Amino acid sequence: KINRLIEQFNNRHPDIHVDVKLTNLHRANTYSVGVDQWLKAGEGPDVIWWFGGSRIAKYAQQDLLHDLTPVWQLNPHAKHFSKAVMDAVKFEDKVFAVPISTTLLGLYYRQPIFEKLGMKAPETWQQVIDSCNRLNSQNKSLFALGIKDTAWILHGWFDYINLRLHGLEFHHKLLTGQHSFLDVRVRETLSHYKQLIDNNCFSKGYKALNTWDVFPAILRGYSAMILATGVPEHIRFQSFEELAIVQFPEINPNIPKYTVTPTEAFIVPKYTKLTEALKTLLRFLSTESFQLGYDNSKQHLPANLKMKPSDKLYTTKAIDIIKNSPGGTQYFDRDIDIEFSGKTPLIFKAFLDQPDIEKTMKNLETLRLKVFKTK
Fold first, then answer.
1. Could you give the CA distance from residue 286 to residue 223 in angstroms, rounded to a whole number?
2. Tell me: the pLDDT tens digits for 140-154?
3. Is residue 248 within 8 Å of residue 107, measured between CB atoms?
4. What values do phi and psi take at 239, rounded to 5?
5. In angstroms, how far is CA 304 from the centroid of its own chain?
6. Residue 308 has what DSSP assignment?
7. SS3 for 259?
8. What are phi and psi of 100, to 5 degrees?
9. What does the buried/exposed string (b/e) look like for 5-22 if buried means 16 or more CB atoms within 10 Å of the residue's CB?
10. Do the Cβ atoms of 98 and 304 come closer than 8 Å?
11. How far is CA 214 from its chain centroid?
12. What pLDDT does 334 receive?
């Protein structure tokens, strides 16, 4: 697919012929190791697909990536990229990558479920708790949850509660090891998380199913909503018009509604010669035509949000939310050191089973001291 798209580039720029040789490392861990080795050895692919957020900042800080700010400033397509997306490719206000695709972690729901009960999708935290109790009385849950092989979704709940209570700056510093997990603000975040557990907001049987297994629960009316990054490809809806998406509810009215907007990008290693031809190619990678073709098979949204209205209303709404986001973060998994995020699913699983706030804070802090003491 990329080869066909690059062929378009060559047809548009006959004076600049680009030969593409793709290097595929299929396993996620293998790829991460490969990227690390290429950048540190100073030899490898000229352009590398990579994750946004701290994964880019890590190498930018080590001066292993080209600063693409001058290239980006002259890019006529730059105006079509949202602040939330650009946050993912910046370090110290400099641009170090071309954003290529994005997704929105949001709350999906079927409108008829709420309409039959004379309810609306919750917009505030109190409405969340009230909705949990009302749905429980109907033998339903507000949120479908599945953590078998997808325990990372528990991170998403922590991300949003922490963002809605304390904002983007605190969340970023917490996930980069600059704040203790014994901070009173973490206690407040976990206290709100505990409210969801205590009020039976999550569906039962979450250990036996993963996130995509439980998605049909909202179609059948067993649960009202689900926190997810998209619609599973294998699900076929009778009517996509019934499916909607909303932002995570407000908790502190003084905190803007930041988004969890995982973004993927192309980075240019410092060992690559940043020629005028390559700069032209980078601008092509940021175009709507390239990104629509690239993301069409991935169930992701192009990072370039200059798009025609989608035939799916929830996609149009997701794009609108991303465009208007005051700032974004990646998944907890991507914004914190991988040595840390590899251990936290077990901690949050234990919290889900027995929401002991003090024990969870101590476990997270012990892990922070272990991981970040040598960073």
1. 39
2. 999 999 999 999 999
3. yes
4. -145, 110
5. 16
6. P
7. strand
8. -120, -30
9. bbeebeeeeeeeeeeeee
10. no
11. 20
12. 87
